[in-house]
Write a structure and sequence with these properties.
96 residues, mainly alpha, 3 helices
């Protein structure tokens, strides 16, 4: 059978180095576990300051109606916020 002269050659570059030089996807920033834990502690501390400012403002100004409510709030909310931040940070950074 005669070859089709109009058929073009496959799209292969003449330079073999170009084949392996495909554009690379940029790697996402991967902080160390120590930095992730430090960020978690920082978020917990910031939420502690915010919650303590809100919770303690009224008792200092007007008196506390519920015994130890402010202390319980100041100890639980920052822990929940810090753990939620760490879980979100880990899932976002480790997603590929």
């Amino acid at each position: 059978m005669p070859e089709n002269k109009q058929k073009s050659e496959p799209d292969t570059p003449s330079n073999p180095e170009r084949i392996s030089a495909a554009p690379r996807k940029r790697r996402r920033w991967q902080p160390s576990n120590a930095l992730r834990s430090s960020l978690m502690v920082l978020v917990g501390f910031v939420s502690f300051v915010i919650v303590s400012g809100i919770v303690l403002y009224k008792p200092i100004m007007y008196g506390d109606m519920i015994e130890n409510f402010g202390i319980v709030m100041m100890l639980t909310v920052p822990v929940i916020a810090a753990v939620a931040f760490r879980v979100g940070l880990d899932s976002w950074l480790d997603a590929e």
